[in-house]
Amino acid sequence: MELLVVTLAHVLPGRDAEGLASIHLISDTIRNAVGLVNASFYRSRNNESYYFMLTTWEDEDCWLKAQDHYNPKQLLLGSAAELLLDPPEQWLMRYLWGYSRPSVESIMAAAHLGTIRPDQAERAQRGLIECLRRQAVQPTLSFAFLARGFNEDFMPSQAAIIAKANGESDRLYSHGSIFLNLLSWGSQTDREDFYADAHYQAISRFLSGMGIVQIMELDPL
Length: 221
Prior knowledge:
By secondary structure, the protein is an alpha+beta fold. The protein is 38% helix and 34% strand. The protein has a single domain, classed as 2-Layer Sandwich (Alpha-Beta Plaits).
């Protein structure tokens, strides 16, 4: 099953041009990797400077084989460490749900990254998927997906070893407590309509009681 690797890097104030150049070089490097399904890169839309990278790999084995040369976090630390405000964060995830409207180009996006209490994660997943399915019926989103997994720095290593030995690594990711909902729109009006929708308002209130949700406004690169 495909593995989604999500990488977030904050750049020092005043170093955005250099940061963008480094991200383009990293993008060119990663796209040569064997086992890469696709790669998407975004930059912040607000005053805070950060880059959001999504790389999808055929499976966990392909990702592990790519570690030495194509790991986005390590590429950042190796070639752009002096530009970073702090060490990059990276999450390993499985896709849960997706939507695409190919007729509409995505010109703006947002990443909703939620850290949900473990005892509420299954309930949060059901609520998110139900809400997203309802909103996908209305033609506001151009592209969206929901994924679930772990911060790689805090993944339970012993559990990972046992799961892999039993051929159950998919279960490990699907029981993580980090959720990523990436949303894309073809216009500012579509974005505003999405956020004003009663279903979104309901799921936003629902999730706020289960953990912490960070919203990052993004522009595709």
